[in-house]
Amino acid sequence: MESLCAQFWPCYGLPPQWHWAMAIIMPIVMIAVVGIPVANILHRAGCSRWWVILAFIPFVNLLGLWAFAFARWPKLAG
Description:
The structure is a single chain. Helix content is 55%, strand content 0%. By secondary structure, it is mainly alpha-helical. It has one domain (2-77). The longest helix is centred in the middle third of the chain and has 24 residues, at 22-45. The chain is elongated, with a radius of gyration of 18 Å.
């Protein structure tokens, strides 16, 4: 674990016995940084906020982005 954590700067802020906390903290940070803005954009476009799940699946997120970009938006259609 020490060699893996030596590559990432957030590991330096925690003592070695607390490195397990990074597995909990980093996903929460990613949900806050990526998930909340994407959910708000989807809501404003008139789509379900559940589509935000696609943002966290590699390669599927790109397909979802293309489908969302070229689909008819419910708020603009009606």
